[in-house]
């Protein structure tokens, strides 16, 4: 059964920083979040609803919607900055805070939390300690 995102009232009750989201924006981004996490539905199991809400929060934040710092920065076009100067205020973001792990999911705090949930669901290469890719044949035998 495909994932159905929570209604806006339920989402806002859990994530009050998004109380200002309009109904059309919520409908759009919740449908997009459901589409993006659909491939992980079987893997996530009982965590699917939490993952769905994190995906919605991530997408809303990237769209600059919400009252959190990340959303306000996105609304001003200041995401991914290394250094910003405005008047006497100067902000620097250290490279240790910037992570490429998780791709787009790694760009918001919500996405990073979601990436922790879906990372085990993402298949990767099987590499042995010798750096070669073993071929596993019938009955679990290596070739």
Write a brief structural summary.
This protein is mainly α. 41% of the residues lie in helices and 6% in strands. The mean pLDDT is 78.
Description:
The structure is a single chain. By secondary structure, the protein is mainly alpha-helical. Helix content is 41%, strand content 6%. The protein has six helices and two strands, in the order H-H-H-H-H-E-E-H. It has helices at residues 8-14, 23-37, 41-44, 48-62, 69-75, 109-118, and strands at residues 83-86, 89-92. The protein has a two-stranded antiparallel sheet. The N and C termini lie far apart (39 Å). The model has no long low-confidence stretch (mean pLDDT 78).
């Amino acid at each position: 059964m495909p994932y159905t995102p929570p209604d806006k009232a339920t989402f806002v009750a859990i994530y009050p920083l998004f109380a200002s989201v309009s109904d059309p924006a919520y409908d759009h981004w919740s449908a997009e979040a459901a589409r993006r996490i659909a491939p992980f539905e079987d893997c996530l199991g009982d965590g699917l609803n939490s993952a769905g809400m994190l995906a919605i929060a991530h997408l809303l934040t990237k769209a600059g919607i919400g009252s959190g710092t990340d959303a306000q920065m996105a609304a001003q076009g200041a995401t991914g900055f290394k250094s910003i100067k405005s008047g006497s205020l100067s902000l620097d973001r250290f490279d240790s805070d910037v992570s490429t792990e998780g791709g787009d999911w790694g760009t918001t705090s919500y996405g990073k939390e979601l990436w922790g949930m879906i990372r085990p669901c993402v298949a990767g290469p099987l590499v042995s300690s010798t750096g070669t890719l073993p071929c596993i044949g019938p009955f679990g035998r290596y070739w």
